[in-house]
Amino acid sequence: MSRTTRSFVLMFAITLVGFGWTAPGRAQSAADIAVNAAKRYSGTTLRVLWEAGLQAQDPLSFSGPEWKKLTGISIQVVETPFPELFSKMVTAHLAGSRDFDVIGYVPAWQADLVEAGVLEPLNPFLDKYMPKGTLDDIHPTYRQWLNWKGKTYGIFDDGDVFVMYYRRDLFADAANRAAFRAKYGQDLVPPRTWTDWDKVCGFFTEKYKPSLYGCAIQRTEGQDYFWTEEAMRNNGVRFFDPQTMKAQINNPAAVRTLAEMVNANRNMPPGVEKWGFIEVFSAWMAGKVAMIISWPPPGRWSEGYGNRVEQLKWLPETKVIGKVGYAVAPGGHSELAAGFNLGVSADSASKEAAYLFIQWATSKETSLKRVMLPYALRDPYRLSHYASREYRALWPHAPEYLDTLKLGADRGLLDLSIPGAREYEESLDRATAAAYGGTPPAQALDKAAAEWDQITQRIGVDKQRQAYQEWAGKPNAYPR
Amino acid sequence: MNVTRLSKYGLVAPSIALIVSLTIFPVLYLLWISFLDWDLQRAGRQFIGLANYVHGLQDRRMWEALGHTLFIVVVAVAAELVLGLVLAEALAGPLPAKKVIIPFLILPVIMSPIVAGYGWRMLWDTQYGPINQLLGWLVGHPVTLVWLINSKTVYFSLIVTEVWQWTPFMFLVLLAGLVAISPEIHEAAAIDGAGRWQSFWHVTVPLIRPLMLIAVLIRALDVFKIFDTVFSLTFGGPGTFTETITLYVYLLGFRNFRLGYTAAMAVIVLILISLATTVLLRRLSDE
Predict the structure, then answer these.
(1) Which among A55, A410, B116, B278 is least surrounded, fewest beta carbons within 10 Å?
(2) Domains with residue ranges and CATH for chain A
(3) CA-based angle A12:A14:A16, to the nearest 5?
């Protein structure tokens, strides 16, 4: 090799290495871009509306202080109980109070919030600050919730998918397996259908009660509709006739579904009709139920993750560490129950700063830290969260947990997300609660269907038809 | 116009301004809104005349809520009247511990209804509530009644809570009436051969009837507006099984933001209450 050639090769190598070293530095992440751009707003304060309780521990104890350290922008958290969140957003907007800059809202409410003028479109900010392809890391199912009528109003921030938790030890027990096979002629495995759920639940209840019951699901009024929507769709029910927009929630399959749900209560602990999240969760942690269906946090906490942090000192001591199994809900399609988007208030005086906070908080790096906060309730929702080595090493069964969350999201069912969604859901919720209270399911659902038709008429049949057809066309609206 | 006349107007002006701004204007504004199709979640509002009223009168849920409310009014007020009268009669005469018993009896009235509601919610709790616990001891096996969900028990729970809190009010009013009756009237009845029951039924009750009517009127109007207790105990559930008219109006206005329709509902309720009050007052003046 001549000297000239050697010099050329050397220079080329140096250039390549140099380029190689500097390239990552130049391709800034969404978080870095947000932080750098937000520094110009240092000294200001952003008011964020967040669900009260553990959810708010994230901005209070982690993302708020962290953002302040990085940008000099303070975060003031306005905590509101879940049932009041929607009203708070709308009334604040109507009063023109400019109370909030960032709003944490349930994606199913997006259509109503946009129509009420509460949310600011994020497209100009996304075009300006969000690196191309960054949002592709959000699970495709959850990405279906970012837009309304072609515009983006929120960035998804909480993978609230229902998970079935079961006691591995009870399912693995040889005596249980033999007894179950003898009784039903099939293997004792985590149930894949609601019929099997009822069998397994009844089997354990019969054998162990009152020290342990076969299953528990929260049945208290207010969030019943999540389970009803899920079970109905798993049984083939469609919410509306796509042409006439007549409600279909009282058709024979829907009535049968609700009747099965009511019937299932007989194997659950006494008084389950009044059990909420906490009661179900406490019974699970105490080892008093063999199966529950709930949101992702119990899966972490019952394995002992986060039990020692200050915010979770109130939790009952878990007696099921190492015994927790995870599965998709019976029927194979879990409800993506609620979730949260982060959006910018249309009334905010600091829209850009608010957006930048959202971009930073939901970025790949920051969001991973947030979904791993032991005390917060944000659940994995990015593909990188499910694959995170760090997360998968948190407890022995964490990989299985994350795989189940991903599978749940893959096959999950979106909450009904059209104008008036909240009213439709509240009506279905009342029907479900009425059935638990003794009203015949057909009667309860007839009443709800009449209410649904009234809501549709009031908002406008054509408008609802268009919105429903668009929603029903999404891959995760109905089981496929 | 002289100075005296001017000063007369000046003196009443603040009161008139207060009444106009706090009573007349809100009622007129409510009326105006009730003629609008105004949903705070949708853009715009338009005048639709009586459409909200027509729709309201066809609203099955409103009539059901009204039915629930009237049921609670009738049962609760009747129970309060009977219990209040029994207590007042028992405590009207000389009793050694009277000065201690009466303050204790009126304690529930002092309590905020929302606090009483949440307190009773814990008492009715299926798992941890002392009511199920006590019943369990009585019958010798665990009792797991779901008081606030089961359609067979929910009204009982609701009305017991309401009666517990407001019977003392009825008792106080009736006690005032009973102690005001001159003992000589009862002595005269006794001389005429009236027994204790006859004296109570034919002497005491007629004498305190106007007071009873006033107490019933006040309580009936109050129970018609029942909100806090239902809100804290059942929130109208299961489903809409215990939904009262005030709760329904609240949900329409503050959860669903249907301002025009809510205003029409409020006007309908106002008219119904006014009618009921007029009938009861006429009855009172006849007495």
Answers:
(1) B278
(2) 30-153+339-379 (3.40.190.10), 160-337+394-480 (3.40.190.10)
(3) 70
